Amino acid sequence: MSKSPGKIYVVATPIGNLGDMTTRAIEVLSSVDLILAEDTRHSIPLLRHFQIQTRCQAFHEHNEISVAASVCERVKQGESVAIISDAGVPLISDPGFPLVRMAHENKLPVVSIPGACAAISAISVAGLATDRFTFEGFLPAKSGAKRKVLETLLDESRTMIFYESPRRVIDTLKIMLELFGENRQAVLARELTKLFETVHKASLPELLHFVESDSNQVKGEIVLLLEGIQKEETDEDEEELKRILSVLLEELSVKQAVSIAMNLKNLKRNQVYPIALELKKISEDSESL
Ligand code: SAM
After folding, report:
1. Which atom of ligand 1 is closest in space to residue 89's alpha carbon?
2. Cross-strand partners of 222
3. Alpha-carbon distance 280 to 168, whole Å?
4. Which of 92, 121, 163, 199 to mutate to test the pocket of ligand 1 (most atoms within 8 A of CB)?
5. SS3 for 10?
6. Which of 58, 97, 127, 283 has its CA at 20 to 30 Å from residue 90's CA atom?
7. Nearest to 121 by CA among 75, 95, 89, 84
């Protein structure tokens, strides 16, 4: 008779404050056969602090596929395994996805042991809309690539959450200011749950000034949050686009007017073309009256 499988536990650990370790996390980590840790040098002191004796093995992006295969075999044989990352929830901008995917492919049980997560902690105190939000993880390090990703978010109406390195936060805020404008609200959530915890909400120029004028604000761990586009902003943008197109259409063809308006407003053809056609039709109709 084949053994019933064990379980794979995805266990959250604190994002700075050891008081956020949950009772269930301690129980599960103490009772499993193996703990897979993103960095054992980082996790062993945490496990010792909670007197957890379980064997710990390194599990990171360079070995996770091979480790995942052998872990699934062990779980099929009845062993239980927990994954932890350096902080917060594994798989959230952290290793673990190949193992969880492989576990599902092998119909092995995966159990969440919830706890601290920087993104969720940050949005819960940011004072930005929480009904809908999008987690964008880390932006690319290089400015050009970062700008391209941010450009895809120009029309995003949900609150956006980014993980950011303290070395790059000023560059990111400068690009955000350029792309999203002076009125957009943003939040710096720094060192959450730790001694120098800071949550600062302001418009993009004010937040940039706050960070540039205090070198402490570019230290530690940072979550940046950006307000989504507001309906009034969308309406104002559409009104301005219509004004530009009306002037251009007095002198130019629809194709030429669309192309210039696209460049001026940094928009895609399908955002401009239908409006230009509508305006052209309205002016032709009024001329034929
Ligand atoms: N898995 C983690 C989680 O659940 O939040 C995130 C891991 S990711 C490699 C690390 C990033 O999370 C940091 O660079 C920072 O952006 C954010 N972060 C982690 N701890 C934080 C804290 N205490 N305060 C603010 N941001 C934090």
Report:
1. 4
2. 164, 190
3. 46
4. 163
5. strand
6. 127
7. 89
Report which residue type is found at 62.
H
Rounded Cα gap, residues 287 and 282, in angstroms = 9
**Dihedral angle over CA of 152, 154, 159, 164, nearest 10:** 60
Q: Indicate the fold that domain 119-226 takes in CATH.
A: 3.30.950
Residue ranges per domain, the chain? 8-116, 119-226, 235-288
Q: What is the mean pLDDT of the chain?
A: 94
* Ligand 1: centre distance to CA 87 (Å): 7
pLDDT digits (tens, 9 = 90+) for 218-252: 899 999 999 999 987 778 888 999 999 999 999 99
What is the per-residue pLDDT for 3? 73
Collapsing DSSP states into helix, strand and coil, what is residue 35? Answer: strand
189 lines ligand 1 (CB under 6 A): yes
Q: How many residues in the chain?
A: 289
Antiparallel, parallel or unpaired: β 34-37 and 110-113: unpaired
Q: What is the CATH number of domain 8-116?
A: 3.40.1010.10
Q: Which residue has the tokens 């992006």?
A: 61
For residue 200, give the nearest of 175, 174, 173, 180 by alpha carbon: 173
Residue 1 has pLDDT above 80, yes or no: no
208 close to ligand 1 (CB < 6 Angstrom) = no
Sheet holding 110-113, edge to edge: 56-58, 34-37, 81-84, 8-11, 110-113
The string of DSSP codes covering 159-210 is EEEEEE-TTTHHHHHHHHHHHH-TT-EEEEEESTTSTT-EEEEEEHHHHHHH
